């Protein structure tokens, strides 16, 4: 009794955290496996990343209730990296990206990720979601997916037509569709039934159906935990001299960091406990990714699905996420053979459902009505990711966001006062930048050339070099011969 009281006094929230850890474990298990399979790596590596995210990152300071592991949002990038550089080099990429995250956290750069345009982030997630949906329709149809994002989308109708005459493809599609149906309908089941997380229930039911009906569907290949862990060889570090690999490292670093810190902001809104310390959270994510890199596993980010499940299950401290990592470790060590019974189309269904959640259709509709420029940035980012690649798509989105902000910030007003006699008064106010220069010059060039003009620039808050030079050139050439030159009036 005394020992129990001592334990309770040292860990007053142990009961709530223990219960929450089981819920998070059951949510994380199918997602870890699904993300790994979709990324083109052994299923066990997804579990390794989940274990590291729980035990290593979970023990560190930053966000107390946020849960980390392999994320659907990184699937496309990982798949492309593995395809281009090979699985051994993936560990190098993740290791170096983690080191950069630690460095950014120590340099206190974590807070600057909060300055990234929300439209770019939502566009990034939407683009990822579209590629995930298109890509996972192929394993759902027992077909091979094309390489490019556009190819995946363009090939979907043909894949469906080919499946019509194929019993195996139709069985696979039925399993995927059934999995998605369970996920969509699970929230309408009785509360006692919902104690089992939807993803686990969907995969469990799909596995039972495939086994009981002896369906001709592909199942997860199992290598064993130790057999899947392959630390990157020293020769793989030589690939860091390539520009392409360095670009991929930067993409991993920025996207994983942004996803984790935006997830932290969302999780903070779900509870009233301690707020996230962004720089420390970035260090924690980086440390976890360095360990994942050494083990040759998938990169990790904070995952909003698991984090929300953790909060909603009543977690009070970081003990819940650490224990969820322990349960993943025990499962991977003791019951790895269970993975071999899981149908691949069921995991495809899980990821199609997850990808659909990344596409913010409602938010896009609201943005289009209220902030059309933001909606265009979101849509352009998503389309660029699908059409080109993840890294280039995000860069295009960021560039568009900067241009939009610069355009909106360069409000300038030109007021013309012409009393019919005496000089024409032209007053410029606001921010005169090169973006508004064509409009300014069109108005000024329409002024009469045979009368004196007084151009007052004293109302400008900002006048960039391009504008100043263009206005001076206009003033020098505007007046006709024999007319008084344009007079420029600047602020004192």
UniProtKB/TrEMBL annotation:
<feature type="transmembrane region" description="Helical">
    <location>
        <begin position="85"/>
        <end position="107"/>
    </location>
</feature>
<feature type="transmembrane region" description="Helical">
    <location>
        <begin position="119"/>
        <end position="138"/>
    </location>
</feature>
<feature type="transmembrane region" description="Helical">
    <location>
        <begin position="167"/>
        <end position="186"/>
    </location>
</feature>
<dbReference type="InterPro" id="IPR011547">
    <property type="entry name" value="SLC26A/SulP_dom"/>
</dbReference>
<feature type="transmembrane region" description="Helical">
    <location>
        <begin position="18"/>
        <end position="38"/>
    </location>
</feature>
<keyword id="KW-0812">Transmembrane</keyword>
<dbReference type="InterPro" id="IPR001902">
    <property type="entry name" value="SLC26A/SulP_fam"/>
</dbReference>
<feature type="transmembrane region" description="Helical">
    <location>
        <begin position="376"/>
        <end position="403"/>
    </location>
</feature>
<keyword id="KW-1133">Transmembrane helix</keyword>
<feature type="transmembrane region" description="Helical">
    <location>
        <begin position="198"/>
        <end position="220"/>
    </location>
</feature>
<feature type="domain" description="SLC26A/SulP transporter">
    <location>
        <begin position="14"/>
        <end position="381"/>
    </location>
</feature>
<keyword id="KW-0472">Membrane</keyword>
<dbReference type="GO" id="GO:0055085">
    <property type="term" value="P:transmembrane transport"/>
</dbReference>
<protein>
    <submittedName>
        <fullName>Sulfate transporter</fullName>
    </submittedName>
</protein>
<dbReference type="Pfam" id="PF00916">
    <property type="entry name" value="Sulfate_transp"/>
</dbReference>
<feature type="transmembrane region" description="Helical">
    <location>
        <begin position="326"/>
        <end position="356"/>
    </location>
</feature>
<dbReference type="GO" id="GO:0016020">
    <property type="term" value="C:membrane"/>
</dbReference>
<feature type="transmembrane region" description="Helical">
    <location>
        <begin position="240"/>
        <end position="267"/>
    </location>
</feature>
């Amino acid at each position: 009794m005394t020992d129990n009281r001592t334990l309770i006094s040292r860990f007053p929230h142990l009961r709530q955290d223990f219960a929450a850890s089981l819920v998070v474990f059951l949510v994380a298990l199918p997602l870890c496996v699904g993300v790994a399979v979709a990324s083109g790596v052994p299923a066990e590596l997804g579990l390794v990343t989940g274990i590291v995210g729980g035990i290593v990152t979970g023990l560190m300071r930053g966000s107390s209730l946020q849960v980390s592991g392999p994320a659907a949002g990184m699937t496309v990038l990982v798949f492309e990296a593995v395809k281009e550089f090979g699985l051994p080099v993936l560990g190098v990429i993740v290791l170096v990206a983690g080191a950069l995250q630690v460095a950014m956290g120590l340099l206190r750069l974590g807070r600057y990720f909060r300055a990234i345009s929300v439209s770019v982030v939502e566009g990034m997630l939407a683009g990822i979601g579209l590629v995930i949906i298109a890509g996972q329709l192929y394993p759902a149809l027992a077909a091979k997916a094309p390489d490019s994002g556009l190819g995946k989308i363009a090939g979907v109708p043909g894949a469906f037509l080919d499946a019509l005459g194929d019993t195996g493809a139709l069985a696979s599609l039925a399993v995927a569709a059934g999995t998605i149906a369970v996920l969509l309908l699970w929230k309408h089941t009785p509360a006692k039934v919902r104690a089992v997380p939807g993803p686990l229930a969907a995969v469990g039911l799909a596995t039972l159906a495939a086994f009981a009906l002896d369906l001709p569907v592909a199942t997860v290949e199992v290598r064993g935990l130790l057999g899947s862990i392959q630390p990157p060889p020293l020769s793989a570090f030589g690939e860091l001299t390539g520009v392409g690999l360095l670009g991929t490292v930067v993409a991993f670093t920025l996207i994983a960091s942004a996803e984790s810190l935006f997830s932290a902001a969302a999780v903070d809104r779900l509870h009233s406990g301690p707020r996230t310390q962004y720089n420390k959270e970035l260090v924690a994510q980086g440390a976890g990714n360095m360990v994942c890199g050494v083990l040759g596993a998938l990169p990790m980010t904070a995952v909003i699905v698991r984090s929300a499940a953790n909060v909603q299950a009543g977690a009070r401290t970081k003990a819940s996420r650490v224990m969820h990592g322990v349960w993943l470790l025990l499962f991977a060590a003791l019951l790895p053979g269970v993975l071999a019974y899981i149908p691949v189309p069921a995991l495809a269904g899980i990821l199609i459902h997850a990808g659909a959640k990344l596409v913010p259709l409602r938010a896009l509709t609201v943005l289009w009505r209220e902030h059309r420029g933001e909606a265009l940035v979101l849509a352009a980012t998503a389309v660029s990711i699908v059409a080109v690649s993840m890294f280039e798509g995000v860069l295009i989105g960021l560039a568009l966001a900067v241009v939009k902000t610069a355009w909106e910030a360069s409000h300038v007003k030109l007021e013309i006062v012409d009393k019919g006699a005496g000089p024409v008064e032209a007053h410029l106010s606001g921010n005169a930048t090169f973006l508004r220069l064509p409009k300014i010059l069109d108005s000024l060039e329409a002024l009469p050339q045979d009368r004196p003009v007084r151009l007052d620039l004293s109302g400008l808050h900002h006048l960039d070099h391009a504008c100043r030079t263009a206005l001076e050139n206009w003033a020098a050439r505007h007046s006709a011969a024999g007319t008084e030159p344009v007079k420029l009036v600047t602020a004192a």
